[in-house]
Amino acid sequence: MNHNLNAIEISGIRKFYNKVREVNGAISLTLGQPDCPVPKGIKEEIVRALEENKTVYTPNAGIDSLRREISLYLKERGIKYKEEDICITVGGSEGLYSVISALINPKDKVLIPNPSYPAYENIVKILGGEVINYSLKENFTLDIKEIEKALEENNIKVLVLSFPTNPTGAILSKKDREDLFNLLKDKDIAIITDEIYEALCFEEYYSIAQKEEVLDKVIYVSGFSKMFSMTGLRVGYFCAKEPYMKNIMKVHQYNVSCAPSIAQYGVLYGLKHCKEDVKIMKEEFIRRKDYVVNKLREIGIESVDPKGAFYIFADIRKFNLSSEDFCSKLLYKGKVACVPGTAFGSRGEGFIRISYCYSIEELKKALNRIEIFINSFK
Ligand code: PMP
């Protein structure tokens, strides 16, 4: 076996999701899967592609028309990657894996936020790299000084950013983008920015990739699992300049050949015609987020108001339980499943992640149960 796997555990998110089945009638607020269906037009386009037998390999980097459309989509957001800088992947997951595989050698140091999406850290570990964590401000936004310090103290090869953030819902401010740019512009470093929740940014969107002067250092990873509610259809992408692109492509090619053909045609349709569906979904998420944040506050649980994605990272420190114990008790006694903050790193201790991509009715039921559970502490 690969010895590096000894340090890897199954995802804490999945662990809790699986536990829900053990508890009859439990409500799960654990997964990152929008509850709305794939937009109708995308479904029809996928069926059309299937009937037209577009079921063969696509080019390794994906169908040209989709790469072109993504280039246009990003341009509208101030990000200037050309069609040839874009490769379609099997979800953002494969994008992350292929990118990190291409960038690091064993023992190379990768600077990763803590807390953050668990894949970054675990991919680096599987590949034999070394994880260095940087902490965030109290409100989960970037603490530039922490990054600066980590860069001074370590020979960092890759910096990972992710906005809007899973599990906190934090976004990048204009000031943080400028500070990051000033810090990184003269550094010899690769910057991976995972922006898979970009379409669910509730305030103005800023990204380090908008700074053209550093675009040759930036590898932008994104996808359509969240934007078009199509987690099972597996389409993502990464953008990179040379020499990154040519090398990441080697991993991507031998790993997956290409992303699913018919789903790529569906996404192409979605980018052209389904903006309204995305807008409606985003408005609905904002409504739910407001409901959950307010209700939590009402029952005495504080959380930073998320500015994107569909998660709330709620503060449970006052209950004097580890986040794992809190979630276990909440599940077995209160019949609601949330994810312990530690599933996202050691600095997630004292927090739980509540996913609000569930109907308002389900959220109301779950929050009422949480209220009863909290009252049992008094
Ligand atoms: N990045 C982040 C931050 C995520 O939360 C996820 C999925 N939860 C992914 C990447 C991967 O998503 P997918 O492979 O479905 O595109």
TrEMBL record:
Keywords: Aminotransferase, Pyridoxal phosphate, Transferase
GO molecular function: pyridoxal phosphate binding; transaminase activity
Enzyme Commission number(s) of this protein: 2.6.1.-
Superkingdom of source: Bacteria
Signal peptide per UniProt: none
Cofactor(s) for this UniProt protein: pyridoxal 5'-phosphate
Domain Aminotransferase class I/classII large: 27-370
Gene Ontology annotations of biological process type: amino acid metabolic process
Family to which this protein belongs: Belongs to the class-I pyridoxal-phosphate-dependent aminotransferase family.
Protein name: Aminotransferase
Species for this entry: Clostridium fallax
Native organism taxonomy: Bacteria, Bacillati, Bacillota, Clostridia, Eubacteriales
